[in-house]
Amino acid sequence: MTCTISSAFIFARAQSSTTMPSSQPQKSTSVGKLFEFQSQLPKLPVPALSETLPKYLSTVEPLLSKDEFAQTKNLVEKFGQSSQGQELQRRLEARAAEPGRANWLEEWWNDLSYMGYRDPVTPYVSYFYTYKDDKLRRKPTQRAAAIVRAAWAFRAQVASGELAPEMARTTPLCSYSYNYMFNATRIPKRPSDIEATYDLGANQHITVARNNQFFTLELVHDGQLLSAAEIESQLDRIVERADSTAAVPVGVLTSDNRDLWADNYELLAQASPQNAQTLEKLQSSAFLLCLDDTKPVTREECHRTYWHGNGSNRWFDKSLQFIVCDNAKAGFLGEHSSMDGTPTCRLNDYVLDQTLNNKVDLGSTNVRADLSEPEALRFVTPPTVVRAIEQAAGRFSKVVGQHQLRVLQYEAFGKDEIKKLGFSPDGFVQMAIQLGYFKMYGKSRATYEAAATRKFLHGRTETCRSVSNESVAFCRAFEDNAQGVQDKLAALQAAVKTHGAYAKACSEGKGVDRHLLGLRLVLRAGEEKPEIFQDPAYARSCHWNLSTSQLSSEHFEGWGFSEVVPDGYGIAYTIRKDALIFHIAAMQNEFGLNSDHLAHYIKEAATEMRATVLAAKLAAAPKL
Fold first, then answer.
1. Are strands 320-324 and 330-334 parallel, antiparallel or unpaired?
2. What is the per-residue burial (b if ≥16 Cβ within 10 Å, else e) of 175-188?
3. Neighbouring-strand partners of residue 224
4. 3-state DSSP call for residue 549?
């Protein structure tokens, strides 16, 4: 769920005089219980060089030959002892200590990974969730209305601050990103996009997309929230109107390269004063509701629908997009730039718990006769804009067509069984991914797992490096038929233990990737780049051939995102009580990647791991 940042890009941005976008929301909702711990949250630490450098060496060793590692070790030790290394560390610590700075990484990370990243947000940045079917609501607009009511109830808790803050056991997590959840949008700009937020009280409307057209639906009438029956009635009116007309698919512009979209955004806004007003109305809405005219059936069809759809019945810059299809299947698409997955996972889990379990307050069954017709949001599209839209649509089709996708629904066991086997569910699944990849390629390569750092003020993520000496030894042991089950079990236990220790360090702000990034970014114009960062081993160790992340809900049928390098895979996984769901995405290109084959090997790996653990436990059990 993050892009790979090239060294050239980092040094160009670091030495640029460009002002980075402000991280402050235009209208903060930072009040109430939701934000009660904000003033108590610690700041993201800057680890000591003596902590990070040995840890870095331990993560690159399994990726290198002995000679390569000896060279890298020499460069790392040289950097740690050098005056340059000490000075860069001093600068980073000074930045972290600046009065008024909430988080030393925040502006850099938001710019480099999101706002300054110029590839299309879909499929490369955004992420999606696939919902379980709603057995109570088979009509699409009926299900959509219930989703809107549930989401609006969650929004009310955010607006009032009455929503409880998220906790990691007894540790509060930062709530800052909730400011960017509702009534928020990304806006394209060169060289970096900006995030715009709008007052929640003054903007009580949503945008509805149907047949590549957009409509404004006011959710409050005469001071009273529309009931689910009223929302459904209004949505029926929108569907009828949209399906009887056609419009230029302006939404596809948001699917484009960010620089091209920035240029076309200005072109669109300047084509007519009406367009600027339409953009403002759309962008200020609480969220988007996309009523698709498709009827996806298979898991792959559903995942593609929520991941990118047809490119036109979306506004990809909006922070939240709920998607309901004509067969009442539903999902969600999140724009990633100012908000990571855990808050939206909470939102969507709430929406599904409320709707699937019939807890949602639907309001009166009566439909007021004086409800205004939903307003169509019209764009003026002169030939220059139409041409830009056609070109953007062509690029979208090309990008989406370059991607392959496989959904692995593994139902042999899930979280409950993994715990009974004596393992951390996430560590076990990470090792299944490692072993599956090893089976397919005969080697381990750099693997990114997102680890949350939200226990710190304005914290986002750190990279959990899943490949270790222990994980490689585990893969080799399981592929060696001469190894007994006890030896294989010991190797698996060691690999999961090492993974867990590194993941814990990441959550404490003690990973290596963000610290090393900070050291690179405090380098000044004209200064020589340290050899540690010119070392090919550094580039190899953060070239994420596997980009992985877990978000889990019993209400999800999976979730997903793309790969982050052309020769790699994006693997989003859900660990349910009785099942594991993997979304495996990759490009179709000269590297010969195959999501179907990787899914096969991950399934094989998980099955073998469970069988081996059970066999080892049985062999160790006392004989009667």
1. antiparallel
2. bbbbbbbbbbbbbb
3. 221
4. strand
Indicate if the pLDDT at residue 12 is higher than 60.
no
Angle (nearest 5°) at CA 304 between 298 and 307: 140
* Closest alpha carbon to 191 in 124, 126, 258: 258
C-beta of residue 462 within 8 angstroms of C-beta of residue 513: yes
Residues 182 and 15: their CA atoms lie apart, in Å, by 34
Q: Within a 13 Å sphere around the CA of 498, how many CA atoms are in the beta-carbon half?
A: 20
CA dihedral 213, 327, 392, 16 (to 10 degrees): 100
Query: 31 falls in which pLDDT band (50, 70, 90)?
Result: confident
3-state secondary structure (DSSP) of residue 78: helix
For the segment 73-93, the average pLDDT, to the nearest whole number, is: 98
**Tokens 């730039």 sit at which residue?**
337
Q: Which amino acid is residue 607, in one-letter code?
A: T
- Measured from the Cβ of residue 259, the count of other Cβ atoms closer than 10 Å reads 13
Model confidence, pTM: 0.95
Local confidence band at 5 (pLDDT 50, 70, 90 cut-offs): low
DSSP line for 108-137: HHIIIIIIT--S-HHHHT-EEEEEPP-TT-
Average of per-residue pLDDT across 542-554: 97
The rounded distance, in Å, linking the Cα atoms of 8 and 210 is: 42
Q: What is the pLDDT of residue 17?
A: 34
| Residue 4, pLDDT score | 53
Mean residue pLDDT of the chain comes to 95
In this model, does residue 9 exceed pLDDT 50?
no
Q: Active-site positions?
A: 336
124: left (phi over 0), alpha (psi -120 to 50) or beta: alpha
| pLDDT higher than threshold 80 for residue 191 | yes
Whether 335 and 186 have beta carbons less than 8 Å apart is answered as yes
User: What is the distance, to the nearest Å, from the Cα of residue 19 to the centroid of all Cα atoms in its chain?
Assistant: 26
Distances (CA, A) of 284 to 161, 201, 401: 20, 11, 32
Query: Helix axis angle, 83-96 relative to 66-81, nearest 10°?
Result: 70
Would you state the pLDDT for residue 624? 62
Write out the two tokens for 220: 């409050």
Question: What burial class does residue 432 get, using C-beta atoms within 10 Å of its C-beta: 0-12 exposed, 13-18 middle, 19+ buried?
Answer: buried
Residue 7: closest CA among 590, 482, 521, 494? 521
The residue count of the chain comes to 624
Question: Are the beta carbons of 556 and 132 closer than 8 angstroms?
Answer: yes
Q: How many CB atoms lie within 10 A of CB 614?
A: 15
3-state secondary structure 231-284: HHHHHHHHHHHHHCCCCCCHHHHHHCCHHHHHHHHHHHHHHCHHHHHHHHHHHC
State the average pLDDT over residues 301-325: 98
Per-residue pLDDT at 601: 98
Place of tokens 């709920």: 322
The strand pair at 403-410 and 375-377 is best described as: unpaired
Q: Which of 587, 571, 596, 562 is nearest to 307 (CA)?
A: 562
State the Cα–Cα distance between residues 559 and 552, nearest whole angstrom: 9
Cis amide bond preceding 382, omega within 30: no
Residue 426 has pLDDT above 70, yes or no: yes
- Residue 45, both tokens: 């630490």
